[in-house]
Amino acid sequence: MSSSPLAILHETFGYEQFRGPQQAIVEHVVAGGDALVLMPTGGGKSLCYQIPAIARQLDGHGITIVISPLIALMHDQVGALHEAGVKAAFLNSTLSFDEALDVERRLMRGDITMLYAAPERITTPRFLDLLDDLLARRQLSLFAIDEVHCVSQWGHDFRPEYRALTVLHQRYASVPRIALTATADALTRADIVERLQLEEAQHFVSSFDRPNIRYTIVEKKDATTQLLRFIEREHDEDAGVVYCQSRKRVEEVAQMLCEHGINALPYHAGLDAKLRQTHQDRFLREEGIVMVATIAFGMGIDKPDVRFVAHLDMPKNIEGYYQETGRAGRDGLAADAWMVYGLQDVVNQRRMIDESPAGEEFKQVMRGKLDALLGLAEATDCRRVRLLKYFGETSHACGNCDNCLEPPQVWDGTEAARKLLSTIYRIQQMSGISFGTGHIMDILRGKTTDKVNQFNHSTLSTFGLGAEYSEQQLRGVLRQLIAIGGVAVEGEYSTLCLTEGSRAVLKGEVPLMLRASLSGPAERKPKREK
Ligand code: ADP
Ligand code: ZN
User: Fold this and answer.
1) At what angle do helices 414-431 and 471-483 cross, to 10 degrees?
2) How far is CA 453 from the centre of its chain?
3) ipTM of this predicted structure
């Protein structure tokens, strides 16, 4: 058999041609280079390491170890590889001692092309011995690290066991590595590179756009009724996922949907493992099941025809939102990402951050990420442009999100934004230091607090200049400023600072439009008819 990547693509996988950056990635890895691959869900990440694994074994380099966080995912992949005639196996807790021993023997005989293993297994002495032995015989070909964002505490799914993967570059420095993820913002990427010492890795970043997904974010009024209407109107008998924050809520919502004749099932970590499995199997096999779930559900579930993903509660950040909504429409057909959000969500998320046992720096980053998500939720312009920008991509208004399809009523927050920026500027000039949101709001609204007195800030020319706005309005303005980079939140105390982008807003070159609904009285336009 030929070890050329294209021949393997044809003969083993039965595909005509490589998709997007696959070929470049495969060639780079076959040649022994390290790679960091960012590709959206459904983009075809698996082939990026599976083809190199086969090619490199044919060339005499030996075995590829695939690190994967989920047992279900391993089983699916290994099953699919078997069907394609590839020698794949896994080592995880579902194997009996004898079965595991058998896999180990095959491994030493070179009778395996790809071995899937969970990260916690990699660092066991027994496994390290196996790897040492393979290395000594030059039969350790490649490490593939799937879902690599799990290594970063800034990612949305940190798994401490991923930290142990530092052993790969420390102990097996000569073995090439390919790391893959479908979700990582700039901070998470940098953290992955640092944690796993992937400085030498070439980055392959695909567009994160999922053009077939229509993004809609509506204000939460009566969430369950809104959900019911959304499903009845737009997704009668479709398969979908509804995410809720708590187990209790999952149960309630599933029951409510069932009472209205929708085929809904609950899924959360509190359910008996067997029942969870049954629900998951039914979701995958039967048509038109709506899974009501906590975020415990989803990773590694490859169901192509999920027609909608609904969020009844706001996720923690944009990465989570992107990952969860990304489970819709993997088949490329039209799908909906629909979310309701309200101020209470924001309060809850903030409290969860505040009350978490994490360090202050961590909390600051989490608050910043939450703000970015709020910026997305409150945006009045194209959601997709915002979403992609968060991942470092520039794009144009998409015509397939709620804001593009039905522009919301807005109020002009430019003047408020200028007052806010001037305040930050003047305080900085007067006191030589920056302050946090609360203090800036107090000055704008003309409140004489202890702090205002202490710093003599009531003498500022902007003191009380924003009295006509509610605190909620001003906070909305601030969030939008942060979202467009007109203000930076810095340091341990989350102080507000001017940026390069501030000037354009101050000069009035960049209008700042806010949702009318957020400021109270104005009504949203009537819903578009389907
Ligand atoms: P990801 O892991 O990035 O979510 P997968 O590796 O599961 O994506 O691939 C998604 C789907 O696309 C799979 O069904 C896979 O078989 C298919 N696929 C991947 N690459 C190609 C290709 N070059 N040609 C045709 N289909 C492909
Ligand atoms: Zn749009």
Assistant:
1) 80
2) 43
3) 0.98
Pairing of strands 35-38, 177-181: parallel
Which residue is associated with the tokens 């294209």? Answer: 6
Residue nearest to atom 26 of ligand 1 (CA): 15
pLDDT above 90: residue 154 = no
What strand order describes the sheet that includes 88-91? Answer: 88-91, 114-117, 63-67, 140-145, 177-181, 35-38, 202-205
pLDDT 10s digits, 397-450: 999 999 999 999 888 999 999 999 999 999 999 989 899 888 999 999 999 999
Q: pLDDT per residue over 49-108, tens digit each?
A: 999 999 999 999 999 999 998 887 888 899 999 999 999 999 988 899 999 999 999 999
∠ CA 453-457-462, rounded to 5°: 145
Sheet holding 308-311, edge to edge: 213-219, 335-341, 308-311, 240-243, 290-293, 264-267
State the pairing for strand pair 495-498/487-490: antiparallel
Hunting for tokens 């049954």 — which residue is that?
Answer: 278
For ligand 1, pick from 15, 206, 331 the residue to mutate: most ligand atoms within 8 Å of CB.
15
Q: How far apart are CA 321 and CA 340, in angstroms?
A: 12
Residue 101: partners with Cβ closer than 8 Å, 6 or more residues away? none
The residue whose CA is least distant from atom 16 of ligand 1 is 44
| C-beta 39 within 6 A of ligand 1 | yes
> Which of 56, 54, 62, 99 has the alpha carbon at shortest distance from 81?
54
From CA 266, how far away is CA 271, in angstroms rounded? 9
| Tokens at 47, concatenated | 């082939």
> Cβ atoms within 10 A of the Cβ of 300, count?
16
* Angstrom distance (rounded) from CA 37 to CA 146: 10
State the pLDDT at residue 153: 85
Scanning 213-262, the segments in alpha helix (DSSP H) are 223-234, 247-259
- Residue 465 one-letter amino acid: L
Q: Which helix (H) or strand (E) segment is 74 a member of? A: helix 71-83
Q: What is the largest CA-CA distance in the chain?
A: 81
Predicted pLDDT at 523: 34
Summarize the confidence of residues 461-471 as an average pLDDT. Answer: 92
Query: By the 8 A CB rule, do 216 and 337 touch?
Result: yes
Q: What is the value of pTM for the model shown?
A: 0.78
Residue 47 CB–ligand 1 contact under 6 Å:
yes
Q: Report residue 479 as tokens.
A: 């969030």
